[in-house]
Amino acid sequence: MSTPKADATQSPAQGPQLHSGEDTDVEDGPTDLILVGRAQAGESAAFEALLLRYKALVSLVAYRQLGHDEGTEDIAQDAFVKAFLHIGELDDASRFKSWLLRITANVALDHLRKKKHTGVSLDQSGVYAAVEHAAAQTSGRSELREASGQAMNSELRGQIAEAVYSLPEEYQVPAAMRYLEGVPYREISRRLGLREETLRKRIHRANQMLRRKLRKLWPEGEEL
Amino acid sequence: MTCDECRGLMQDLIDAELSGAECSVLEAHMIKCVECARMHRHLAKFTTTMVKTLQPLRTSEDFMGKVMARFEDSKVELLRVRESQKKTPVVGKTWPVWPFTAGIGVLIFVALYLLFSGGTPAAVAALTKGHGSVRIMAWNGKDWQEVNGARHVNDGQRVEAVEAPGETVELDCGSEVGLKITLRAPCKVHVERTARQILLKPLSDAPGRFFLRVVRTGRTEFALKSVQLEFNLAKVQVDLAEESAVDVEPHSTGSVTVSVQKGAALIFNNSAPESVAEGFARNVPQSGACTPAVQAKPEAFMWIEK
C-alpha cells in the first residue's frame, strides 16, 4: 500500500495544488513510446502491457459510441486486434492512445452501420431510445418496468462514461481502470508505470473532477 | 486526527486502500465528527454508484487471452496471404535475362522522362459541371497559376470558384473511386490524394460549402479508404466503402457544420473522433467538444437541388 499519510495534511479541496505537486513526480515505468517500440519489434509482453493499460478506456469509448453495452466487448476486441496488426504503421508512437481510440471509434461506427442502427449515443437519442432498446431486449408488458429501469441505468452509465472520457488525458486511464474495472491502486500503478503516490493523487483528483461534472446526479456534498 | 486529515484519506478508505489500523483511526474520528461522517457517506455513495453503474462495461476475465489469440490468428492469416501473393520461383527452369534488362531500361527511361518533363501528377477528379467560372490552379514553384483549359484537378492543385457566388461546381473522382464532390461558390479548395485518402482543404478566405456523395456501385479502388475535409483542425471523414451523402459547411468562425443525409461521417479536431449518424447534424469547432447531435434540417441539402 502507499503511504497516504504523507499527503494527509492536504485538504481534498486543494485539488489544483495536488495536481501541480504531481507534475514533479517522475514516471518510473515504461511509457507508451517504449511499449509501442517493443510491440513494433514483435514483443508479446509489450502487446499485453498495452492491452492491460487501455482495455478499460477502450471499452468506455466503445460504449460511448454505441450507446448501449451490447457488443461493447466485441468492439473493444476488434479495435485491439486491428491496432496490433497495424502497429507497424504508427509513425509517432507517442500518439498511440489517440490512434487506438480513433480505431475504436471507427470499429464502432462500422458495427453501427452493419446493425443499421440510427442513433449513435445517448446524448443523441436520449432516454426514449434507450427505453426502446431495453424493451427490445425483453418481451411482454410485464417486463416494461424492468426495461425502463435498464434504460435509466443506461442513461446514467452514458453520463458517467461521458464524464470519465472528458477528463484531462492523464486522469482518463487511471479513472477508467479504477471505476470501470475496480483495479486496486497498486496494480494500476504497475500497469501504468506510475509511482503509487502519483497514481493515488490522480485518482483523488479524477474523483473530484467527476463529482463536479456529475453534480446534477449527486447534488449533496458538493463541497467535497 | 483532524478533519482535513480525515477527508484526505476518505477516498482511500472507500477504495479499500488503507490498513486496518488506519481504518480504525478514521472511523473513530467519524464517530465523533458528524460532518466528516456525512461527507464520507456521500463520497461512498457516489463512488459505489459509479462503480456499480460502469460494471456492465467490464471486459470478461479471458478478454486478454481472446484478443491475443485472435491477434496471433490474424497475423498468421496475414502472412499466409502475403506469402501467396509472392511469385513462386519455378524450379529447374532458366528464364532468359534479356526481358528483365529491357524492362529495367524502359523504367529508367520513363523515370528520366518524368524527371525532366516535370512529371505528371495523378488526376484526382474531373470537372463535370461549372467549367466557365472555375479555375484550376497549380503551384509553379513561386506562386499559384491557372492551368489553362484544365478539365481535371490533379494531386496538389486547387479549385477556385469565386466569380459566381451561389453557383455549384461538380467534381467526379470516377466510378472506380465512387466519389462525387459538389462545391458551392465562393470556394477555394486545395485537393490532395494519398494512397488511402482524398483530402479537401478549403481556404479560409473562401471556404465554400461541400456535398460529398459516395456511390459504391462499380468501385474498384479499394486501397482508397476515405475522403477527408480538413478546415485547419476541424476534420470530417467519410468512408468510401459505404454509400453516403454528407453536407459539410465550413464557417468563417472556424467551425464546420456536418449534416448527414445518408450513411455516416466521422468528425474530429484535436480530440478522439466522434460520429454523425444518418439524419443528424453536428458542429465541429477548431478545438474542444463537438456539439451534441440534432436532427439535420432538410434545408441543409436543398442547395444541392438548386
Textual characterization of the structure:
The complex is a heterodimer of chains A (224) and B (306). Chain A is mainly α and 224 residues long. With 306 residues, chain B is α+β, with helices and mostly antiparallel strands. Chain B is built from 6 helices and 16 strands. Chain B has a 16-stranded mixed beta sheet that branches. In chain B, β6 and β7 form a beta hairpin. In chain B, α1 packs across α2, α1 packs parallel to α3 and α2 packs across α3.
Number of E-state strands of chain A: 0
Instruction: Give the SSE string of chain B.
Output: HHHHHEEEEEEEEEEEEEEEEH
Overall form of chain A: flat
Strand content of chain A: under 5%
Largest interface: A-B, 72 and 60 residues
What's the Cα radius of gyration of chain A? Answer: 19 Å
Concise description?
The complex is a heterodimer of chains A (224) and B (306). Chain A is mostly helical and 224 residues long.
Question: Layout of SSEs?
Answer:
The complex is a heterodimer of chains A (224) and B (306).
Chain A: H1 15-22, H2 32-40, H3 44-66, H4 72-85, H5 96-115, H6 122-137, H7 144-165, H8 169-181, H9 185-192, H10 196-213
Helix pairs in contact in A: 1-10, 2-3, 3-4, 3-5, 3-7, 3-8, 4-5, 6-7, 8-10, 9-10
Chain B: H1 3-14, H2 20-32, H3 34-54, H4 63-85, H5 98-116, E1 123-129, E2 135-139, E3 144-146, E4 152-154, E5 158-161, E6 168-172, E7 179-193, E8 197-214, E9 226-231, E10 234-239, E11 244-250, E12 256-262, E13 264-268, E14 274-277, E15 280-284, E16 294-295, H6 302-305
Parallel strand pairs in B: 8-9
Antiparallel strand pairs in B: 1-4, 1-6, 2-3, 2-5, 5-7, 6-7, 7-8, 8-11, 9-10, 10-13, 11-12, 12-15, 13-14, 15-16
List the main descriptive attributes of the protein structure presented here.
heterodimer; A: 224 residues; mainly alpha; 67% helix; flat; B: 306 residues; alpha+beta; 6 helices; 16 strands; 30% helix
